[in-house]
Amino acid sequence: MIKEADVVIVGSGAAGLYCALNIPDHYKIIVITKKQPEDSDSFLAQGGISVLRDNDDYDAYFEDTLKAGRYKNNKDSVEILIRSSRSVIEDLVRLGVNFDQDGSDFSYTREGAHSVNRILHHKDVTGKEITEKLLEQVRHKSNITIVPFVTMIDILEKNHTCTGVVLKDQANTISTISARAVVWATGGIGGLFEHSTNMNHITGDAIAIAVKHNVKLIDMNYVQIHPTTLFSKGEGRSFLISEAVRGEGAILLNKDGQRFVDELLPRDVVSAAIYEQMKKDGTDYVYLSMQHMTGEKIRERFPNIYEKCLEEGYHLETDLLPVTPAQHYFMGGVQINEDGKTSMKNLFAVGETSCNGVHGANRLASNSLLEALVFSKRAAFMIGEGLKSGALENGAEIIDYTQYKNTEALEKEYHLLVWNEISKGSVEYAGLCKHEG
Ligand code: SIN
């Protein structure tokens, strides 16, 4: 294992990769990831990425983001998000990302709580398209090394300055990398929930380590439930049925085939209405109908969803699809400023694991990939400046490895730490959580 780097980035989702790409090329960067580099929630994102279509849409986009966020958002962060959106999209296109076109213009779709169509997409696999293109770029950079199948189990700290990370590999061998800056891009907390659209290994590791080292957290009770995931009796990750499906006209029906909610309300409102309906009907799901769309249109616009549903025995053009809510996103997390700085020196956080208040209490659909990119680029700039000025200096540290030897107990302890933080406020739908204590 490499022992030293200028920057260690923990996580290989869109935020981690884009951060790596935006740090000047002459710095040595190591990206570590728990599984394969493709195993991130960014990769799974279906719906799309929101963008300011033209300046006339600014006020409406701002208001939609705040209204969905129950007006708990940090307005400065929202302004940065929206004002930076077009340059980030231009950058992605330059890096080879393809968005669906409508003639010579982009094709814009809509999702819940957006007042207009402003979401760019690549069929129903937008996250895969973006993440694959970012990964391709990262793999071409000689200054960036991706190390798969290692887990961050701690950070190195000296006088409340982060000086590196402690890692565990698949053989449970412990090692360290010392670094002048560490970036947490570890994603959300869905792996702690019984029903989540997130990958199982995304368990909020950075949050637990933050608690241990007194790194400030914020808005820890803001957990988002997505209204529509494919109902299944089996175990494992809940398969998302993108809100873009409802954006394209699909409707929700109760057991008697009647509509019971406006499908394009904010997702927390739609989730609550579904729970209410399931309770009334005594069912574990409601139905989603795409019967207004032709099979050809569904296959062309939502090939991934179509295939998965077919595997499960549902023909979307004719069958009603049983759907149920599941944990999807975490709005709270490691407190950062608008440049990704945490409360600990030389420690940065980006993407879902971080929180600068941009999403408020409930994220607007398709603002997550955008947020990951906009704010990781700003963090990268800050890190580059710090490295250049010599402000991000560190010192190697000797630690006692024996404290990490019982990896199973450590994992349990970390899950508990995260869950304790989440449960400090009142969490909606906490009954979905695996942890019973
Ligand atoms: C979806 O496609 O419904 C999810 C998009 C998002 O989480 O913003």
TrEMBL record:
Pathway: Cofactor biosynthesis; NAD(+) biosynthesis; iminoaspartate from L-aspartate (oxidase route): step 1/1
The organism's place on the tree of life at top rank: Bacteria
Cofactor: FAD
GO biological process, one term: 'de novo' NAD+ biosynthetic process from L-aspartate
Record-listed E.C. numbers: 1.4.3.16
Reactions catalysed: L-aspartate + O2 = iminosuccinate + H2O2
FAD-dependent oxidoreductase 2 FAD-binding domain mapped to chain residues: 6-369
Record GO terms (molecular function): L-aspartate oxidase activity; steroid dehydrogenase activity, acting on the CH-CH group of donors
UniProt keyword list: FAD, Flavoprotein, Oxidoreductase, Pyridine nucleotide biosynthesis
InterPro entries assigned to the protein according to its UniProt record, in alphabetical order: FAD-dep_OxRdtase_2_FAD-bd, FAD/NAD-bd_sf, NadB, Succ_DH/fumarate_Rdtase_cat_sf
Gene3D superfamilies: FAD/NAD(P)-binding domain (3.50.50.60), Succinate dehydrogenase/fumarate reductase flavoprotein, catalytic domain (3.90.700.10)
Pfam family, one: FAD_binding_2
Family, similarity comment: Belongs to the FAD-dependent oxidoreductase 2 family. NadB subfamily.
Protein name per Swiss-Prot or TrEMBL: L-aspartate oxidase
